[in-house]
Design goal:
This protein has one domain: NAD(P)-binding Rossmann-like Domain (Rossmann fold, 3-Layer(aba) Sandwich). The protein has an eight-stranded mixed sheet with strand order 3-2-1-4-5-6-7-8, sandwiched between helices. Helix 1 links the parallel strand 1 and strand 2. Helix 1 runs parallel beside helix 9. The mean pLDDT is about 95. It contains ten helices and eight strands. NADP nicotinamide-adenine-dinucleotide phosphate binds next to helix 1.
């Protein structure tokens, strides 16, 4: 992939896997659009990447992606500023131990991890199609193994488990990718997703006290570096070897099977419809 004039959008680019991914994509000469929720952290990230790659071609968009109005504003800004998109990388995501509601009244895990990539991608789909070849990449997780989509209570209203909510949202990332890839078969736009590994990032640090501390200790002993964790995202964004690969789940830069239920086409379609119904 030649990188001059490429436009690559990375959500959650102000920390962890997204920051490293944005940095490495910027080093290829692409224009990288960093989407983040804090103006200060965006400015810090621009400074950091520019320090390492002085010629980095960066743009920023501030948005709280758990808010649907903000997601739509991001899509509008992108459409105003760019006539094409080469890569849309849905990376932002988080884990919440407690039941919390987004500004739209949707459970946070579902709002941020699933609804945001769903809404951003589908709102940008015409531009992505017009930009073909283009790539849509979503950072999922091996945490989806064993999860189901609980259509009777998607938001854990009756009984909330942070882990179940997270695992369900990551299964939704994969099922969304598979359904999206099917819908894009008539185009030269690919849709793939990935597991980055267990990565030492700011992940889970938004949670209170003991949990954040215990998680950080686990990361210290068991997790890979953000540089290693970003490898599959970077590979999917820029490798010629996956230019036409679509509808696959990757781990360590290789396509691997996801859970059995993730391939269920009826559930994929139901999830798509249910997600549309949840757009405010
Ligand atoms: N770390 C792992 O072991 C692991 C494993 C499997 C999958 N993943 C997935 O990898 C992705 C990246 O996570 P990470 O590990 O790099 O975590 P991280 O270090 O916490 O980074 C998450 C990024 O998302 C941003 N973000 C969080 N909430 C946001 C919101 N409401 N609006 C906009 N941006 C928001 C964060 O912004 P701030 O800088 O402002 O916090 C940060 O830039 C996630 O989708 C996660 O589910 C991670």
């Amino acid at each position: 992939m030649a990188h001059a004039d490429k436009v690559m959008i990375v959500t959650g680019a102000t920390n962890g896997i997204g920051l490293i991914t944005a940095r490495e994509l910027a080093a290829t000469g692409a224009r990288v659009v960093l989407v983040g929720r804090s103006a200060r952290r965006l400015a810090d990230t621009v400074a950091l990447i520019t320090q390492q790659t002085p010629a980095a071609n960066l743009d920023t968009i501030q948005a709280d992606l758990s808010s649907q109005a903000d997601v739509l504003a991001v899509a509008d800004t992108i459409k105003q500023r760019y006539d094409h998109i080469d890569v849309l990388l849905n990376n932002a995501g988080a884990f919440f131990t407690e039941h919390q509601l987004s500004v739209d009244g949707i459970e946070m895990t579902w709002a941020l991890n699933h609804m945001a990539p769903f809404l951003l991608t589908t709102t940008l789909l015409d531009l992505l199609r017009a930009s073909a070849p283009a790539r849509i990449i979503t950072v999922a997780s091996a945490a989806h193994q064993g999860a189901t989509i609980n259509f009777d209570d998607l938001e854990g209203k009756t009984r909330f488990s942070g882990w179940k909510a997270y695992a369900q949202s990551k299964l939704a990332n994969i099922m969304f990718t598979y359904e999206l890839a099917n819908r894009l078969l008539d185009s030269d736009v690919t849709a793939n997703c990935l597991h980055p590994g267990f990565v030492a990032t700011g992940f889970a640090q938004n949670n209170p006290g003991w949990f954040a501390k215990a998680f950080a200790v686990m990361q210290r002993y068991m997790a890979i570096t953000p540089e290693k964790g970003a490898e599959t995202s970077i590979f999917l964004a820029r490798s010629d070897s996956v230019a036409t690969t679509t509808g696959r789940y990757f781990d360590k830069c290789k396509p691997v099977p996801s859970s059995k239920i993730s391939y269920d086409v009826t559930t994929q379609r139901r999830l798509w419809q249910q997600s549309l119904n949840m757009v405010k």
